[in-house]
Amino acid sequence: MSYPKLPDFKGLAKAFELYSQLKHEYGAKGIEKILARAEKAQKAALSALKKLPIDRKLAQKEPNDIRKIRALRPRGPRILWQKFDREIYAEKLEGALLARFAGCTLGAPVEFWDVEKMEELARENNMPFPPDDYWKYVPEPYRLRYSLSPREAYTRDKMDGVPVDDDIAYTLLGLLVAEDYGADFTVEENGKAWLKYLPYACTAEHVALENLKKGVPAKKAGEIDNPYCEWIGADIRSDPWGYMAPAWPERAADMACRDAYLSHRRQGIYGEMFFSAAIAAAFAVKHPVEAIEIGLTEIPKDCALARDVRWALKAGRKIRDYKQARAAMDERFKGMSGVHTSNNACLTIWGLMIGGNDVSKVISETVAMGMDNDCTAATAGSIVGAVVGKRGVPKRWHRRFNNKVHSYLNGRKLFRIDDLVKRFTKQAAAVYAKAWQG
Fold first, then answer.
1. Alpha carbon of 158 to those of 379, 401, 411: distances in Å?
2. Of 110, 122, 264, 378, which shows the fewest CB atoms inside 10 Å?
């Protein structure tokens, strides 16, 4: 996709600021009128952009309603287990959780860093790149992330529990939603849970949360003043639904759709559905790519994300490392936001294709690709972790977790990993029990 070439709006805004200051210092008159005219023109242009009609034929291929989405899916297995085995599930779930936490924690201190900058940090740490363990040192070690965990808490020797991150918070929030309202929660109930547990958010989630606070109905909260509705925010919320519907990609995608609808539309919704279905499938397959291929069967076959995923699977056959992956992504998605669903999904897929069932290689190569690399490595870790189980996750990645997960959720600052396994197992068993009853 070729995006429109934007004028240097940031440069113009800065010039307005500087010259208004300079002219004021020189005693010029009429500054306020000129600035007011400029602001009015900018607002008028933005309003005109918002009112531009969309391509209706394209919209029909990319619906937001779950029934219409299902009508446009390709064939898929829908469900892969005929019974729910608690012991098998719990071992695979813990693998998914640990590898997700590891990928997120490795990527968090270098989120959005250039590849070259990460390579320099590796040299400073006297460690290989892609990293084969957590960073020994990161810059600004005492600066807090999410007002709770200092950056040094994400390093190998200073870690005590899984440090706080939004990618992890949404995994926990999904569990709380199911515990409060059941796996058949509505979009409205999901909104109530956000108001109860979520103190703040970013981009699309921030827009939705603020709209909810203003009394906007949950089904409309993601539509008003939300240019982020196709960004990665819903994608990072995919894990709990895959965990609660193991080997049942259709059910996982259904829950993901209801969750994503609160804040996202189109590719934003499909990203969460796709990865939730892939994570669910990962509990029943032998290789992560199998899970990705199954995940693809739960979204519209002609949507932009599906086309990008199919391209990534084909291109990935020739991609051997993080450098090739990043170059391929940059070439195809030039001009796209670095936090969009589609480009980051491709990096996640390539991390899994390069690493296969090797958890360490999957998360380290994915982090090394850059972009939104705590998100991509967390999702990749979740998928490969579910495939290989806890026994397949090297101990160095979870030794310092100390059975603790830190959180910024209201009233839920600390979780225990063993307790999370029990609670997710209870929810998954209930999902399957209801299926057999029905």
1. 24, 11, 25
2. 122
Q: Nearest 10 degrees: CA dihedral of 54, 58, 61, 65?
A: 0
What is the distance between the alpha carbons of residues 284 and 303, in angstroms, rounded to a whole number?
26
* Per-residue b or e along 326-357, where b marks 16 or more CB atoms closer than 10 Å to that residue's CB: bebbeebbeebbebbbbbbbbbbbbbbbbbee
Contacts of 294 (CB under 8 A, 6+ apart): 76, 77, 80, 249, 277, 278, 281, 285
C-alpha angle 59/236/350, rounded to 5°?
Answer: 85
> How far apart (Å, rounded) are the C-alpha atoms in residues 359 and 85?
24
Strand ranges in 171-264 using DSSP code E only, listed in sequence order: none
Distance of CA 209 to the CA centre of its chain: 17
Using DSSP, state whether 342 is helix, strand or coil: helix
pLDDT digits (tens, 9 = 90+) for 94-136: 999 999 999 999 999 999 999 999 999 999 999 999 999 999 9
| Residue closest to 284 by CA, chosen among 307, 319, 252, 311 | 252
Report whether 187 contacts 255 (CB < 8 A).
Answer: no
With cut-offs at 50, 70 and 90, classify the pLDDT of residue 438.
very low
For residue 83, the number of C-alpha atoms closer than 13 Å in the C-beta half-sphere is 4
HSE value, Cβ hemisphere, 13 Å, CA-based, for 240: 28
pLDDT tens for 359-368 read: 999 999 999 9
Tokens found for residue 35: 């600035």
9-50 residue pLDDT tens: 999 999 999 999 999 999 999 999 999 999 999 999 999 999
In contact, 308 and 62? CB cutoff 8 Å? no
Nearest to 164 by CA among 174, 180, 151, 178: 151
Q: What's at 1, amino acid-wise?
A: M
Whether cis (ω within 30° of 0) applies to the bond prior to 141 is: no
pLDDT in tens, 268-287: 999 999 999 999 999 999 99
* Structure tokens belonging to residue 323: 């450098």
